[in-house]
Amino acid sequence: MPITYVHIEWPDNQKDHVYSPSSVIEDYFKAGESLTIDTFLERCNNSLNEASERVRKKFGYACTSAEAESYRIKLKCEDYDVSKNVKIISIK
């Protein structure tokens, strides 16, 4: 399971990244796209839940780092109006 990072830019131009324990996150995001806060949060939650389940299937326990990242992103999204966009810069 390759660790994968989605590099993003928040609506206020802050750079950040989303950590995933699995490359499955690449199925949810594409470099160059812009997503509303709501859509971005939904895709983060879905992809990180799926990544955590992949860890569970392989190792027998969920990935607490994916769960923590999902929570961190949720809190950060609360700082912005839902109509604002998050830009996906790259996925590595």
Summarize this, please?
By secondary structure, this protein is an alpha+beta fold. It has helices spanning 37-59, 64-77, and strands at 4-9, 15-20, 34-36, 85-91.
Mean residue pLDDT: 96
Report the biggest beta sheet as strand number plus sense, adding barrel if it closes: 4 strands, antiparallel
Helical proportion? 40-55%
Alpha-carbon Rg, integer: 13 Å
Strand order, sheet with most strands? 2-1-4-3
Give the DSSP E fraction (strand runs of 2 or more residues).
Answer: 15-25%
Order of helices and strands: EEEHHE
Instruction: Give the overall form.
Output: globular
Structural class by secondary-structure content: alpha+beta
Cα-to-Cα separation, first versus last residue: 13 Å
Count of β-strands: 4
SS element count, helices: 2
Stretches where pLDDT is under 50 for at least 5 consecutive residues are none
- The number of domains is 1
Keywords, please?
single chain; 92 residues; alpha+beta; 40% helix; globular
Description of the structure:
It is a single chain. By secondary structure, the protein is α+β, with helices and mostly antiparallel strands. It contains 2 helices and 4 strands. It has one domain. The protein has helices at residues 37-59, 64-77; strands at 4-9, 15-20, 34-36, 85-91. A 4-stranded antiparallel sheet has the order 2-1-4-3. Strand 1 and strand 2 form a beta hairpin. The radius of gyration is 13 Å and the shape is globular.
